[in-house]
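worker-03 picked up job from queue 'complexes'. Input manifest follows; two sequence lines, order preserved.
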Amino acid sequence: MKDDQSITVLKIGGSVITDKGKDEGTARTGEIRRIAEEIAGYDSRLVIVHGAGSFGHPQAKRYDINGKFDPRGSIITHLSVKRLNSLIVAALNEAGVNAIGVHPMNCVLSEDTRIRNMFLEQISTMIDSSFVPVLHGDVVMDRELGTSVLSGDQIVPYLAYRLKAERIGIGSAEDGVLDGKGRTIERITPANFKEIKRFIGGSASTDVTGGMLGKVLELLNLSESSNINSYIFNAGHPGNVSGFLSGRNIGTAISKEEY
Amino acid sequence: MKDDQSITVLKIGGSVITDKGKDEGTARTGEIRRIAEEIAGYDSRLVIVHGAGSFGHPQAKRYDINGKFDPRGSIITHLSVKRLNSLIVAALNEAGVNAIGVHPMNCVLSEDTRIRNMFLEQISTMIDSSFVPVLHGDVVMDRELGTSVLSGDQIVPYLAYRLKAERIGIGSAEDGVLDGKGRTIERITPANFKEIKRFIGGSASTDVTGGMLGKVLELLNLSESSNINSYIFNAGHPGNVSGFLSGRNIGTAISKEEY
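worker-03 finished. Artifact:
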């Protein structure tokens, strides 16, 4: 039990661990294993959130569960992302991490697509007991809509804020947020966001939850209400996940102030 | 959304849906399918809780997770009962029930083996949205012990009480609670429990969570603090699950008063 240490929230993007261009439910098993091994070297309090990639977005689109209540489509989509989660949890355990899957369908109530309440006592106790909870983008119950799609990008800042995390890492498929010439923007703050916004697009392939702009907006909101700094970096580049976990600030930083 | 109807909690015992005498992780797939079909005929607000059977008890015993904190053993046991849950959820969906697995590991915090808190907002919303949540005996986080084993028999009365359920059905592998001559005892109340207690043993095979005596004690406690009546019946007998769900009072009733 390591009560004295700060918590890190690590997001692994759906584009990194699944092939969004290929068939539904195509996992990049080599990448999953490599990232699991990079995480295994890290010995601190950690929560992982992964995207749904090709295990969630095409299904959500096919059944139009963002647009209407479809119990069957919701179940099929949820079961599919659970399968991806079980692959990641298995790879982490194999690498020596005491990972436990935590499905938002089981511990979240949303209201009109936003998290209204999330049970966190089990997650805190996991962290205190040296487990690594592994959450993911999911279909969740929604008191307005029946069900709604909950993006990992909404879970990350919510968890970080409620768990009083210190750092957030967003492992994406790009080298951070890029400017018009493809160069990584070093830092985004409330002050320069307006100017930078024009560079930030949606996701390259099917993504029902907002892509890069969605990520940046959530993290910017968080930085304004807390002192949590976030880093968007390329998790597809070997060494970046372990580098971020060991304290390196890589990719694009999102913070309240320029410093 | 059927807000006007009462909630039923149905437990399916681990001995009914798994072969406790055989190898670890042996599911009775025919029985699971039959019971799923009996449930599919029922059109009301329902929560299902199933036991872990051979997917949980032998593993919990092997790693002695009732006696000490063993992260690896806890994860292995949890993953095993999750597999059983996914078989049952799949059979229910195939039979036409909009079933969703709810893993107690994801929504419970226990304290010294007793449920301290359980997130229920997602479960209530599932019921209101015509889904059937399917919980199970599980390893859960425990603020005293790190992890502890949570029996389905503890989940059932907790859920029934908190969700203000009207009826509980305990589908076991026996015709109810039997007297010394193998006859089903019709009713157990606080008044006759002392006299009946001597007939009630533990479970025939490996059961780390208390067997029949555990069940009866939990339900008797519940009947004393509420008006919820419980029925312990043989779920291995075709027609009993659908019979109970359609309102028949079969097996042994457990209630506050003789009536």
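worker-03 released lock.
The domain at 7-254 of chain B is CATH 3.40.1160.10 (Carbamate kinase).
DSSP finds nine helices and twelve strands in chain B.
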